[in-house]
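Hey Z.,

So I finally got round to the D-galactaro-1,5-lactone thing we talked about over coffee. Here's the setup:
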Amino acid sequence: MAPAKPVLLTGASGALGRVLARHLGARGWALRLTDIAPFPDALPPGCTFTPADLADGLDILRLAEGCGTILHFGGISVERPFEEIVGPNLRGLYHIYEAARREGARVLFASSNHSIGFHERDVKLDADCQFMPDGYYGLSKAYGELMGRMYWYKHGVESVLVRIGSSFPEVKDARMLSTWLSYGDLAALCERATLAERTGCAVIWGASANSRGYWRHDARESIGWAPKDSADPFAAQVAGVVSDSPIQERYQGGGYTVMDYTRKEPPPGALF
Ligand code: 15L
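And the result:
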């Protein structure tokens, strides 16, 4: 089933954007694809691509005109210095939410597990857990989730805030046995987030049905999404693929926690 109104997909030229363009385009969705980089694939029928910079609020307003949902996968998707993050991920997100407010559109925000990356791996987290960003990138995702919440309470803009674990074609290391989100599960989640009658402001863990998962209790039932895949069959292959850093192996955010890490003594127990 295709949504009644066009859907704006930002970050369309990135790995996840391309997966979604292909999957949703094949279902006959009218997608407006955008990215700062050219779209490298053939355009699905009925879809358009318009290059745009998230820094340009007017361009984003124009692109969102008449759209019912914005699938926001644009911006910086890895840890970078603060000055590189601030434009696309903070100011750019403001442009997305202003466009959604003007159109009465829903936003699916591609948040990340790095908004909570400094939680320990042996703790099971619910969606209302404390933000514990593990870098400037994770901090921008926590900000994005809070922006979604503000626009919901203040302006009634609906959001589905998806804390994506690790969305790749395959499970590559032991951590991903907990964090993996298959492309199929990601695409189904975006479908449900768009088609659900109401979402309010929903936080959902973007992970497949991994028995070693770190996360539980979120709003998935309210939008009718349940993951079908699991990292479990990869266990024998990747269980031994771990780093030699006790910090990296201690926290859910893995490798991001040790980037530019300068703390001398490991924190005793919980960090707060
Ligand atoms: C993310 O948020 C990144 O976008 C992705 O490249 C992976 O690093 C992923 O997190 C992860 O934590 O595995």
